[in-house]
Amino acid sequence: MRPTTTFTREKPLDFNTTLANLTSDIRASFFLTTNPTQVAHRQQQYERGIVQLSFLHNNIAHDFTSDTRTTIKAIFDAVNFNGLLHLSRWSNIKDLSDNSNIDWAATWNLFGNHINAKKTTTSFKHSILVSFRTKLMMDELPLMNNLVKRHPDVYKQEWKCVMCLQEQESWSHLWRCPHLAPRIAALIQETKSACVNLIKDIRPVLPLTFDNTWNSLSCWDLPTTNTNHVTFDLIIKGFIPTAFTTAISTVVNKKETSAIIDSVISVAQTVFREEIWSYRCDLFTEWEASKGITTAIKKSSSAGFVRSRASVNNRHSNSPSIPDRWKSWIAQAIDTGRPWLGFQIHINSLVASLVQHFIKF
Ligand SMILES: [Zn+2]
After folding, report:
1. Alpha helices (H) along 100-207
2. What is the CA(172)–ligand 1 centre distance, in A?
3. Residue 171 alpha carbon to ligand 1 centre in Å
4. Which residues fall inside 5 Å of ion ligand 1, going by CB?
5. Is CB count within 10 Å lower at the N or C end of the chain?
């Protein structure tokens, strides 16, 4: 009953860079401490799977003694996450992340819940949902602006949104499309009140200041040209704003906060899929039929060529210029003794399933 996006170690490495590059990069950052007085001590530690190493970053050695497996795992997590964060499609996410506007622990927790969802649904239905949520996160819904790139011989650049005929359909257009506005307003309202209802189940009387904080969160807003805020569409993509988690955690405990976010946002994503996306797809299919765009035409289009070129670009656009931020994360983690980037959980398998999906496109 596991989703098809199971994790293998080779794939994310293949995606980020070559294995040889990666390992030589990691190897170049380490050296064993050579202080002779510590040799006996170190050997003893090594037998218990603990090793004393120095991690070299910007010519500063960060010494640490650690269980090797955990450390190496943290490094691979950091390298993978670094790769994902520097994809061009995530440039906005990277900026928000740099300003600490995204709660990554909550974000991966939500995504992980989808991957590890209870076996109450069929694996087929489950894998469709995982795939949909992955596409949301990776900006891969077949919106007109994406279709024009994938099948330029079928879809014309000048074609407008089939629902309002005002501008080319894109993710941000979806949120300002006048035709969808009532559905979107209802989704935001329902998401907001579902959170408050769950909070009130735990804490029936909320502090007077809560309403004000809650209503002024930027995550209830629609996307604008100001990309410094985490707006509602990003929540639907699965990115949890730090301010959202913070607001809820002022009135309930950490575990309750996490449970509320997971259940409400999962439902909000499902409602988006069923009430907004499927609705749009029905209209889109009708419109395609009126244009004579059939499944056969789509299949025989230049998709294969465009896709393989796109995937080559995506793969290599991040490898030569990708900053070595993971090194400073690891260096900080060593120095402070805290998990890199504040993670409490292993994100590798989650990032890997995104990455694996990404390879298919
Ligand atoms: Zn529209």
Report:
1. 104-115, 123-137, 144-150, 171-176, 181-202
2. 10
3. 10
4. 161, 163-164, 177
5. N
